Amino acid sequence: MKQILSLLTAVAMATMIGSVALAQAGGGTSQVNGVVVNGSTTTVFQAANNSDLPMDSLIRWSSFAHEYPKVASQLDNRPMLIKDAGFLRQHPELEKLLANHPDMLAQMKRDPGNFFANLPLSEEP
Fold it and tell me: Is residue 19 part of a domain?
């Protein structure tokens, strides 16, 4: 009985790992860094995929944040300020950036975590 149970467990694990590998093969170029099976739970560790990120807006924001670190820091600490018309009026350089790129403002409101990471903008000793 123990042999049958062991055999079934081994087959089940092999099937799960195989199905994960097949799913990954059809999913594009993401790199699988590891697979962990714990009971009926399979966890797949794979490299991040940035294909759905608005890279042009992120690059534009990064440039702005390096040029205006105080404004970027305020938004990092309180992302909801991006929705505050008064805050935007107080920072005409930010208001101009967002007026020139309205899609960027919509992206910031929808996914602020992509832009505001609450990370230091420069390395200080």
Answer: yes
